Every structure is written in structure tokens, then in C-alpha cells.
């Protein structure tokens, strides 16, 4: 069955613009936080609350968004999320107090979380198997573009009076463009019609799919009916391992990690982080080209294996580099703002603001102001520079500079880039693609949102525990622990995650129904266990 010529470009624009909005809202705070602190005199706790308010809204959306998506439809959910985003942008643009800022950021978080779920589900249902992988993965590419766009606008508006108001306001532009594109797209695919043409030859309950739409309750996600429990195991496993491998910390604390392993100059750490962003773009584009050829399972296995090796490599490198750590908080926005590095994603759906620890660049001398500490630097007060939460090096024992070890510096850089690439063509786009495919259409929105809520919660836990974990067991053992988790994730993918490339949503649904034990996916990835016969249904029938 073909698609109208304009359908694929319009679906691509919906996916790309949805990701762009997500990435922009996620990263724009990095440039807005410094002028906000100057205008409102925000304390460290207030900065932390403002940055975290986006997460609060996103968590709320992940809890209720699934019911909205299933009840009102995917297209209407996207429209609704864009309206909420417009309201949030307006509140932020006119905000005169911290309370209004928090309200606006919470609304933006709710909107981008709801939109991210609805976009992935909508695109996966509207397009066919040949294009589903690349178009859903395009959302991840949009996240990267949005982050880079936020940096560009932050730079352009840095010196403008009340420039932060414009930074927040521009988030409405891609949302408006996406809404215009949606006007020319159908409401949803006719899923029952897709089932009607697919008749399994082995009999059983699946043969009755064409006779009526099954009904699912939320509790069915945990029952054996239609192997829903197995599907939920796959979905939760992917989102949890996506986060428990430490990607929020490895990526959001990139500059900090480079500084810790020897890149002492501020510009060196920033350049390293910019390099990571470029690598993410390239890896995401590679994933888009491979996801419908190599397959979802192959990308997940390769990505998780490389993540295990690279994050363990970072841990081993840090063994050879002396460092001290001790997390605390400092009301210095230029050192505590969210990086917005194109590394989260997951998400597209799962990046949370990191905690706000102390920055002590001068090895034991706390930084009191940006201008005092980095006066000679022309970029010291540039709010577009993506500084990240730094590990506190307040120990007086670390006052002596670390010996120069160029080989270790470059090893850490390579490991970080490999980790970024592996996540960007594995867990990053494929997790959400698989989640949009494996559930029946009647409960797909609620199931996706349920898994997404665990993604946000795990992200928050990993981000908030990072500095405490470093203070307890050290940076090296922290990353080695993440490496061990990635190895466990590799085993999970091999045993539980099926291959879904080239299959219609109806075929994927019946594949799950026929296989009662998810572990069988690890050994047989073909659909030979279920034979199908495509019959022609006349127009008169």
C-alpha cells in the first residue's frame, strides 16, 4: 500500500520539528540561567528548582500523557502539547518572578514530554515498515538540531537587554510549524484494517483480530494476555538500561570529566564537548541509515557493547589521573547551568537536569564570581559557553597540578566519543522506536507513557546520585560500575529484545502473541514461527 507523495515529507517534518522543540527547550536554560540569576538574584537552591521544574512537568506528562494519547488520539495530543508549549513560552517571556518562571518551565516540560511520546507513536502508525525506522529516528536528529540551535540563539541574544525572554519565546516557532504540518496529515492509521488483511494460518485467538478491536486495561500490561507482560519487560528493560548505563552523567558532565582527567584549560574542556556534539550528529545520521537495514536489535547490541567498553575505558583512565571530589552547591550559574549537550536523548524522552555542585577550578579556592575567577578570559562571561556542573576539587591535597599525560587525555577523549556514538546509534533512537512498535494500538499510548515515566525517574536517580557516588567510591569505580551495567544490558537485549525491522505493526503484534516467553527472541529472530497469507479484500466486502 503506497502513501500519498506528500505524506512522507510531512511525517518527516512532524518528527524533526518535534525533536527540535524538545532539544531546544532542554538546552535553552544553559544560556538563560546566567542573565536570570543577575536579573532575579537567584540563590543556588532557586536555580536548582528552576532547572528542575522542567523535569517536574515532564514527569507529570509521563504519568497522565498515555491516557490523553489513547483517549483523544495521537494527532490531538500533539496539538494539545503545542498549545501548552505556547502558553509556557508566553509565561516565560512575560515572567516577573521566580514563581512564574517555574510555572512556565513546568508547562514546557509537560509539553515536550507529551509531544515526544505522541510524535513517536503517531509517525510509527502512519508510515509503513519501510520508512518507520528512519522517520521515528529522525526525532532524535531533531533533538540534536534543537540543542545546537539553542546555542546559536543564546549566543546571538547574550548581549541583548532581557535577552532571556526571547530565548524562551523562540521555542514556540518549531511548535507552530509542526502544528501547520499536522493539519495536512491524517488523524491516525486504520489499524484494524491492517489486521484484516493479515490472516495467520495456525489458528488461535489472533484470527479474530479482524472481527473487532480488543480492549485493554492498564493492568493488562502486567498480565499474560497476548504476552503483554513480555512486552512490558522489553519496554522497561530498554528504558532502564538506557539510563543505568550512566549516560545522563557521562554526557551531561562531559566538560567536568575532561577537566578531571587532565584537560585543565576551560577552552579545552569546551572544545572537547563541542567535539562530542559533532560526533552525536554523525552517529544519529548513521543510525537513521542503518535502522531499517541492519535492524533494531543489531544496533542495540552493537551500541551497548561499545558503551560497556568505552565507559569502562574512562574509568580505567581516571585511575591513572589523581583527582579529588566532594559534591556541594554554589550559587554560580555560569558553573552550574545545565549543559544541554546533545547527549541526552534518549529521548528523546529522558534527560533530566543534573544537580548543582560546587565548582572549584583553582584547586582548593572556591569560585565566588565569574569575573573574579576568570577575568583575563574574554569568554569568561559568555553565557553561550556550555560549562557543566563540575566536580568539587576542594581538597588542599590536590593543589599541585597533575602531570601532563597527553596519551591519557586523548584516550579519555576517544572513549567519550565512542560512548557518545554508541548511545546515539543504539539506545538513543532505537529504544523509542521499539516502544512505539511492540504494543497493541489500543493501549500503545498508556504503555509508552508508563515506560517513559520510568525513564524520567531513572534519569533523575542517576543524575542526582552521580556526585554522591563519586564521593563514596571514586570516579573510576563509578564508571566501571556503569560498564558492568552495560554488560548486563547487553545480555538483556540478546535474550529479550526481538527484531522488528521490515514488519508491519500487525505482524509485530502477532509475533508477540505467539511467543509466550520473551527469552525465545534471543535465539530466533525470524518470523518463521508464524506463517502469514496476504489475502485480497475486495472493495465490495
TrEMBL record:
Q: Where is the composition biased (Polar residues)?
A: 358-373
According to the UniProt record, where is the region Disordered? 342-398
Q: Name one GO biological process term.
A: circulatory system development
Leader sequence residues: none
SUPFAM superfamilies the record matches: MFS general substrate transporter (SSF103473)
Catalyzed reactions per annotation: D-glucose(out) = D-glucose(in)
Q: What is this protein for, i.e. what is its function? A: Facilitative glucose transporter required for the development of the cardiovascular system.
In Swiss-Prot or TrEMBL terms, this protein is called Solute carrier family 2, facilitated glucose transporter member 10
Species the sequence originates in: Rousettus aegyptiacus (Egyptian fruit bat)
Query: What phylogenetic lineage does the species belong to?
Result: Eukaryota, Metazoa, Chordata, Craniata, Vertebrata
